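Practice problem. Given the sequence and the SMILES for S-adenosylmethionine, write out the predicted structure.
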Amino acid sequence: MRAHAPGSSGIRCPAIEGGLPRFAGPKNRAIGEWRGEDFRAPVSDAARMPLFLTGVRDLRCSLEIGMEWMILMSGGMDLMNDKYRIIGPLYDIVARIYSAGRIDKCKTAMHDHIRPDDYVLFAGVGQGTDAVAAAERGARVTVVDLSDSMLDIFAGRISGRHFLHPVETVHTDILKYEEYGKFDMVYANFFLNVFTRPMVLAVIEHLAKLAKPGGYVVIGDFALPSGGAVARAFQSLYWYIADIFFVFAARNAFHPVYDYQTMLKGHGFQIEKVRCFRFLFDDRFCSILARKG
Ligand SMILES: C[S@@+](CC[C@H](N)C(=O)[O-])C[C@H]1O[C@@H](n2cnc3c(N)ncnc32)[C@H](O)[C@@H]1O
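Answer key:
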């Protein structure tokens, strides 16, 4: 899937698209795919960005090119394949400081809907404190993540622990995980915001297939800016600080806060509950509980 149409006016990195040596060989095929999905914001997202941020295009392209060369020269393919290898170990602590603990609360806000023996999936689990909390409630937990290093941290977290049901760990791209119709609850906590908009829509569609009929998808993420102009500007600024950090730290997509409720409704979900967490005078993070129709 391409992030923007050829010839469109979206953010582009001409030197990357045209000039640099391509990674070759089957081992590195995933890199080309990641490059296609993640490097460029789609036109619609570019159009929504504040002008001053679209103006940093050249700087961002230069940094991306520098990073490509650094990786090429160091032969650091692991770094390309595992985007969370460096930032992964720091991820939870950074999130805790940045949100004064609200992100942790947001990730487990819908856990009172988990019943013992429920099948519960955590997509892009990361360090997985939320998945551990679900396992402690007696759920049959499956975690999926693309990052080896994140799954190593998660393995350390559950090592020596005994739950009612053992936790299943799957190392793969969520789009390649196809246990359709299996799960009572599918969690996407601070996961979808790493992707471009077309990719988010594709992943939501996929998560919907993984949930049972009548099952739930839970999305915990940044609150959609709302209220007056000043409040919205501050909410956007708060998001962009995190986004820009992760664009460089983990090559996440650059985009405004996504409207997950609208996206879920567009995929036939009913929003049953939303719990938001305030920090610095306003809602900063929300957990959305959506039932599959
Ligand atoms: C921003 S972190 C969030 C982690 C965790 N859910 C949390 O709330 O702390 C995103 C996670 O998604 C994983 N990830 C990114 N793309 C993925 C994909 N296509 N399939 C599975 N996991 C993916 C990353 O490796 C990372 O662990």
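Check your answer against the key. Strands lie at 119-123, 140-145, 168-171, 183-189, 211-222, 269-279, 282-292.
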